[in-house]
Amino acid sequence: MNRALDGLSRLVTTRPWVTIAVLILVTVLLAAGSGLRAPPPDTEGTLPQGGAVAQALAEIDELFGDTGDVRVITLLFRGDALTPGGLAQMASLLDEVVATPGVGELLVPGNPVVSPAQLVQAALQVDGLESVTQEQIDAARAAPGIGELLAVMTGADSDGTPIATAGIRLRDTGDERVAEAERRVHELALDDEGPLLVSSVSFAVIEDEYREATETAMLPLIALALLLIAGLLLLFMRALSDLLLTLAGLLVALIWIGGAEGWLGPNGLGLTGPPNPLTSMVPIIMIGLTVDYAIQTVSHYREQRVAGEPVAGAARIGLRSVSVPLVLAAVTTIVSLLVNLFSPVEIVGDFGVIAGLGVGMSLIVMLTLIPAGRTIIDRRREARGTLQPPRPISAALPGVERLAELLGRNLTRTPAPYIGVVVAVTIGLGFAATNLHSEYSIRDLLPRGGSVLTDLDTLDAAVGGSTEVASVLLKAEATETRTLLNLKDLRVAFEDPASRPDAAAGPLQTSYELLVQDWVHDSGAPGDRYDPELAALFREASAEVELDPVLMEEFLERLWERDHALARSLVNNPGGIDTMLLQFPAFTGDPDASRRLQEDLEALWRGDDSALTATSETIISFAVTDAVRDRQTDSVSTTIAVALVVLAIFFWGTVRQPGLALIAVVPTALVLVSVLGTMALLDIPYTIVTS
After folding, report:
1. Are 357 and 340 a contacting pair, CB within 8 Å?
2. What is the CATH number of the domain that holds 300?
3. Which of 181, 520, 575, 685 has the fewest CB atoms nearer than 10 Å to its CB?
4. DSSP letter, residue 175
5. Distance CA 177, CA 106 (A)
């Protein structure tokens, strides 16, 4: 390795212009890859492969198509909605939404819109709400079943403002169509005029505000960070040329990693996935590393100049001496990052690859650009006789050298007290780390004071929170008595707020048994699809203690002939186990309740617990976070072991003392424990990002 590094140092310092030209050429080639960067993955795309949730989602997509994946838009009406003017405005807006191109065709079959206006209109059995009086509205609120449903959709904000909500369910097409539909509904809501102030909450609206806040906030933060870095570099280096070379190297390194991510991604070589929240942190990591590499390179160059070496010799010797520790540190870091490839979460593996590349690219840029640039600049000054004596970086701050010498002298003379303090602090923070909790909340990503966060808080206060559609994949024989009875018990449990899961925001909306009841039970309610012939066949099939499987198969065939909606809740497999889809609204603002949803469903289901799997956007997020957390201990242990092996090989090959690897790695473990403990003390949750 020494021979290779010596050759690199000679090449860079004897052919600095060639080095600069090669850097420019590579930068241009890699920059072309920036245009190949794919859009970030959706939440489902971050799931660990092979998990129960991922398998359930794949089956739902395969068997039920778009109808199995639903997105919910929640319309928020501020003001007294249960008035003639309020209901008329609500009904008019919903009619406009349904008729809007790009929205209407994505509405789920059946009942895609649920609103107070719709309930009042159904109770009064009128065609429109234009001439409805307040007395009629009050009477409708007292109608059986209507008052309870209106209570679910209305409430008051924390300041007492009356609140009403309406829900619109769209088919999740998995592309930009559904996002554009959600944005269009949001625009219609904001532009709507009347006595009510209207807004909407949806996945696309939340994502847009998060991205806008991130982009607009990151730019000034990055600018501020670069300004502070520039100030500190100028303070320590006291040379404008070194500052400019460092900033140029930082820019080149960031261009390299951005382009490399495009070339390696789905639109390039396909070796990694699209950019994700983890890989977006790589540039931040690179900023610190690049600046560190620059300071080390400049410091070693100046030390050789102080020792009396000419410019070319100082650059060559300085580069050769600094390359060994920096390359060793970089290789150890890269190998440790590549351990993430064994993670079940694909985006974590991609982070390992991109971050490893970022570390290597930062090192290459700084080990070539800084020495080449310094050689070009200082050799000209040396030839003119205007080259000034260098200022050691260690002397940048007065008193630092003296303090470092004092601390080093005390540490070497009496190391025990210092080691004792470090161990004691680590033990204390390690104990605190046992209380570290992991969670996921979309609110953590939203800007404080933003409209979406305000709307989410209003929904929490008024109706218990914003909602999404939770889907449950059920594997059972549809014609068995026990299955139908279990589905009935589940439906009844969901109708009662006291017995349904805490995360459930309402009764079941999609169920095979629910559809059967709609066709065989004569409720007399508006829109009832009671069919006497089907009802008679069902009674015949269920006349005995056990269902007649032959008659039930005939019943299902006739039901499908009359209502193809059966295919949205049941895939009947005569030769094997049937697959059913259950759907219901679920709250998104209670992480603990969402985490317990699968367990609560298993408690209500009287059949085989392994037969049902719950999925939702929130559950997907938990699945990703839990997978990372559960594997983190193994990942950390593997990373430390890999670093230990790499360092042991190096120290054995250079000084025949592999035990030095322990001295280098043990502090890393202590720092890790301290970081986790500090997170627990500061109540910073363990998420996929902080992991």
Report:
1. no
2. 1.20.1640.10
3. 575
4. S
5. 8
Q: Are residues 116 and 188 in the same domain?
A: yes
Q: Which of 554, 581, 616 is the last residue of a domain?
A: 616
Instruction: Quickly state the pLDDT bin for 53 (edges 50, 70, 90).
Output: low
Give the pLDDT of residue 32. Answer: 92
Note whether 356 and 471 are same-domain residues.
no
Tell me what pLDDT residue 593 has: 84
Specify whether 611 is located in the same domain as 503.
Answer: yes
Q: Do residues 333 and 194 share a domain?
A: no
Last residue of a domain, one of 207, 226, 259: 207
Which SS3 state, helix, strand or coil, does residue 585 take? strand
175-196 per-position pLDDT tens digit = 788 889 999 999 999 998 889 9
Burial of residue 75, with CB atoms counted within 10 A of its CB: 0-12 exposed, 13-18 middle, 19 or more buried: buried
pLDDT in tens, 511-556: 888 888 888 887 666 566 778 888 888 888 887 767 788 888 888 8
Whether residue 572 has pLDDT greater than 70: yes
Our CA angle for 661, 662, 668, nearest 5°, is 100
pTM above 0.90? no
Mean pLDDT of the chain: 83
Reference 169, options 147, 185, 156, 146; nearest CA is 185
User: pLDDT band at residue 388, thresholds of 50, 70 and 90?
Assistant: confident
Residues comprising the chain, all counted: 691
Q: What are the φ and ψ backbone dihedral angles of 579, each rounded to 5 degrees?
A: -120, 130
Q: Alpha-carbon Rg of the chain, whole angstroms?
A: 33
Instruction: Provide the number of structural domains found in the chain.
Output: 3
Q: Which residues contact 402 (CB under 8 A, 6 or more apart)?
A: none
Give start and end residues of each alpha helix (H) in 32-128. Answer: 52-64, 84-99, 116-124
Co-location of 463 and 610 in the same domain: yes
Residues 390 and 245 in one domain: yes
Residue 278 in domain: yes
Q: How far is CA 222 from the centre of its chain?
A: 21
Copy the structure tokens of residue 503.
């995360």
Q: Answer whether residue 214 is part of any domain.
A: no
Which of 262-276, 470-484, 560-574, 668-682 is the least confident region? 560-574
Chain position carrying tokens 């259950």? 582
Residue 201 lies in a domain: yes
Containing 172, the helix (H) or strand (E) segment is: none
One domain for residues 517 and 387 = no
Q: Which domain holds residue 521?
A: 451-616
Phi, psi of 435 (to 5 degrees): -95, 10
- Give the start-end residues of each E strand in 561-662: 570-571, 578-587, 612-615
Share of the chain above pLDDT 70, in %: 90
The answer for residues whose C-beta is within 8 angstroms of residue 614's C-beta and 6 or more apart is 470, 471, 472, 597, 598, 601
How does residue 204 score in pLDDT terms, banded at 50, 70 and 90? confident
List helix spans (H) across 67-194: 84-99, 116-124, 134-141, 146-153, 176-191
Cβ-based neighbour number of residue 446 at 10 Å: 19
CA–CA gap between residue 69 and residue 57 (Å, rounded): 9
Question: What is the bridge-based pairing of β-strands 467-476 and 612-615?
Answer: antiparallel
> Of 563, 253, 48, whose CA–CA distance to 245 is shortest?
253
Q: What is the pLDDT of residues 351-372, one digit of tens each?
A: 889 999 999 999 999 999 999 9
Res 571: pLDDT: 85
CA dihedral sign, ordered 73, 76, 81, 86: negative
| Average pLDDT estimate for 464-485 | 84
The per-residue pLDDT for 607 is 83
CB-based contact 326:648 (threshold 8 Å):
no
**Is 456 part of a structural domain of the chain?**
yes
Task: Verify that 31 and 73 share a domain, yes or no.
Answer: no
Torsion angle of the four alpha carbons 26, 30, 32, 36, in this order, in degrees rounded to the nearest 10: 170
